[in-house]
Design brief:
heterotrimer, A mainly alpha (254), B mainly alpha (57), C alpha+beta (153), A: 254 residues, mainly alpha, 9 helices, B: 57 residues, 2 helices, 0% strand, rod-shaped
């Protein structure tokens, strides 16, 4: 087996992943919460208002990070779907199972904060343009992944069917991203991108960057914590989990 | 105190701004709480009787 | 990578590619319907149907906003700054962001004189955000009089 093969094989071992990621969890959570607090206070109090929108502009600091994350989480599930179908890695299936509800919640926040922002700026809570509609489709894709898993008997078969939907659904992500360029929409073009010049001055853009990283780290911590629980649940009959349980009982007493 | 009221009102957009931030934070807190509760539940279910099954390894 | 895995990967690539091509074909076929509104060029060019509810959009032409005597009705010109423009009549409350030079979407019907009778007016803002002080400088430089109400709706 090649060096890469060996690494992939080890990464696929739930036990190895569980042991390795223990220190990551606290780190991600602490960094994420700290950045979110800084970004939120910065965005609400210190960032200037917009010359046209006034203070409703501040909604950008929760809307843009969640909208970005909603797309990124779906892409990650698509990659996990490929890994599951090609390499039959159980961990990839667990990742999809854990991420789907989180992604749906984040997409829901992006939709709701978008509606709340739309009312004072556009003059309407909701308009069926290409951007809003494609994000709504994303929301239902997440929901579909969860429903499909419940609907199909047998963990392995359900996992593979869900993986196919996760992969096929990634087609929607570039549609969301470019909808504002391809069609006439009410939604404005994107204002946050790592590759392009920001469309706002640094005192508005920096808190946005802080909150984007904060949301990514926090949600990564949530997914990782869920994944570690999922590993314990699915491997609860194995010797290593029972050893771990004994240590957890006698040790910290958590 | 007056400054604080002005801050809360957000130039008339207070309802929108606070609602958006409230929803975002509420969902984040729920998302963060779920794995903590799930872990407790797992420990409560399996912790008390770690040898409840024969070795399956 | 062994043969079985490679075959699975190839299958996935084909399915994903097929889905992408299908989506692209469907979206291309629906292109006109996915556009949320008619730009001024298409309203003037007659492609926008009269007598049915449609959406149209454009920029509010400078100096075109006229309030009628009752104070509620308003008429303005939407333009693309490239020679196409049309008149809109509307009775109701305008959105906070409504001002000259602003992108605006109107829902309503074109009447027999090709005047757009709007039942709803929405503001379309762009992705450029600015603090009020900076905007003041930018507007002063571009020699348009700064709006005293900018940033304080």
């Amino acid at each position: 087996m090649s060096r890469l093969g060996a690494f992939v094989h080890r990464l696929g071992s739930p036990r190895w992943f569980f042991d390795m990621t223990k220190p990551w969890l606290a780190g991600l959570a602490i960094i994420g919460i700290a950045l979110l607090i800084v970004g939120t206070v910065w965005g609400l109090v210190f960032a200037p208002e917009d010359y046209q929108q006034g203070n409703s502009f501040r909604i950008i600091y929760v809307h843009v990070p969640t909208a970005h994350l909603a797309e990124a989480l779906y892409l990650a599930m698509g990659v996990a779907g490929v890994v599951l179908l090609v390499w039959r890695m159980k961990l990839a299936d667990m990742f999809i199972a854990v991420t789907a509800p989180v992604g749906m919640a984040i997409t829901g926040v992006a939709l709701l904060t978008g509606a709340i922002w739309g009312k004072p700026t556009w003059g309407a809570w909701w308009v069926w343009d290409a951007r809003t509609t494609s994000v709504l489709v994303l929301f239902f894709l997440y929901l579909g992944l969860m429903v499909l898993r419940e609907a199909i008997p047998g963990r392995e078969r359900a996992g593979r069917a869900v993986a196919v939907l996760a992969i096929v659904g990634t087609v929607n992500v570039p549609i969301i991203k470019y909808s504002v360029d391809w069609w006439l929409t009410l939604h404005q073009p994107s204002s946050f991108s790592l590759t392009e010049q920001p469309t706002m001055p640094v005192e508005m853009w920096l808190p946005l960057l802080v909150n984007v990283i904060g949301f990514y780290c926090s949600v990564a911590a949530v997914v990782l914590a869920g994944l570690r629980n999922e590993i314990l649940e699915r491997e609860s009959d194995t010797v290593w989990v029972r050893d771990w349980l004994q240590r957890a009982q006698s040790g910290s007493g958590s | 105190m007056n400054d604080f009221m002005t801050f809360l009102q957000m130039g008339g957009h207070g309802l929108y701004v606070w609602l958006a931030y409230g929803i975002a934070w509420a969902v984040l807190i729920v998302l963060a709480t779920r794995p903590i509760l799930a872990r407790r539940r797992f420990l409560a279910m399996h912790g008390s009787c770690p040898e409840r099954k024969g070795s399956s390894e | 990578m062994n043969t079985r895995r490679r075959n699975r990967l190839v299958a996935i690539v084909f399915v994903l590619g097929g889905t992408a091509v299908t989506a692209a074909l469907v979206l291309t076929a629906l292109d006109e319907n996915i556009n949320l509104f008619y730009p001024p060029e298409r309203v003037v060019g007659g492609e926008a149907p009269a007598g049915v509810t449609i959406r149209a959009g454009g920029m509010v032409a400078d100096g075109s906003v006229e309030h009628d005597d009752s104070g509620l009705g308003v008429s303005f010109v939407l333009t693309d700054y490239q020679g196409s423009d049309f008149v809109v009549r509307y009775v109701g409350i305008l959105p906070d962001l409504f001002r000259e030079g602003q992108g605006i979407l109107v829902t309503g019907e074109l009447d027999d004189e090709r005047v757009f009778q709007a039942s709803q007016v929405l503001a379309k803002h762009d992705e450029n955000y600015m603090p009020p002080e900076l905007a003041g400088i930018a507007e002063a430089e571009s020699s348009t009089p700064p709006d005293p109400h900018a940033g304080a709706p």
